[in-house]
Automatic annotation (TrEMBL):
Keyword entries, A-Z: Coiled coil
Protein name: MYO5B protein
Ranges in coiled-coil conformation: 3-103
Length: 149
């Protein structure tokens, strides 16, 4: 049974490796075709007059920038959609916290001895802090200047 299991795993790995090799081979073929197209375009460009070469170069750059802009717009839309989703989640969690706090205030204090102990522990921890700002000693003059301004 163990030998068969190992054999099956080996065959799975071999199959995955072959599929991956095939995908990489296809990718290399596509890249070679793209390289050949670019070489053809480059050779044709060299045969053109300097003015047409400049115009062609500008068109190529405009196309590249347009595609880059479209990619950035798509990324922006995704980020905005994610921001909206996160804001909705935050509202839901804020509501849950408010509901939880409201339910805690309705429970009599005698039923919450554990919670009272936790508050005391938190208060003691807060008393141990000297301040709220962490900074490097060499940044102190900059920090003071920023606080003043």
């Amino acid at each position: 049974p163990v030998l068969r299991l190992l054999e099956a795993q080996l065959q799975d790995q071999r199959r995955e490796h072959e599929e991956e090799m095939e995908a990489l081979k296809n990718q290399v073929d596509l890249m070679q075709e793209e390289l050949e197209k670019q070489q053809q375009a480059f050779l044709q460009t060299l045969q053109l007059s300097p003015e047409v070469q400049v115009e062609f170069g500008l068109q190529q750059e405009i196309t590249r920038l347009t595609n880059e802009n479209l990619d950035l717009k798509e990324l922006l839309e995704k980020l905005e959609k994610n921001e909206k989703k996160l804001k909705k989640q935050l509202k839901i969690y804020m509501k849950k916290v408010q509901d939880f706090e409201a339910s805690q205030t309705t429970v009599p204090a005698e039923r919450r001895p554990h919670e009272r102990n936790m508050q005391v522990a938190v208060q003691r921890k807060e008393k141990d802090f000297q301040g709220m700002l962490e900074y490097y000693k060499e940044d102190e003059p900059l920090l003071i200047r920023n606080l003043i301004t």
